[in-house]
Design goal:
single chain
């Protein structure tokens, strides 16, 4: 992982996890170690073709990974209310 990130200057390594089969703690351990190595090298990993069961297991153990094709989760935007004085022209 370190060689991929440091040698190429790329900040993200995409890991295709579609063929891993049923997710288990071995898969979670492997992904956690890859993410740790990537972060130590100044990067991160992104998962491709992740099974919903893998998402659930990673969530259960408290690990968050960026997933290809999935919008990044952010806090919803707050509503903005503007006060208008009577008699002001509409913009």
């Amino acid at each position: 992982m370190r060689g991929l990130l440091e040698g190429s200057g790329v900040g993200v390594v995409v890991c295709d996890v579609g063929g891993l089969g049923p997710p288990g703690l071995g898969v979670v351990d492997l992904l956690a170690r890859l993410e740790l190595a990537a972060r130590r090298a100044g990067g991160r990993i992104r998962l491709r073709d992740a099974d919903p069961a893998l998402h659930a297991l990673l969530h259960l153990v408290g690990l968050r990974f960026e997933v290809e094709g999935q919008a990044e989760q952010r806090e919803p935007a707050l509503r903005v209310e503007e006060e208008v004085e009577p008699g002001e022209a509409a913009v």
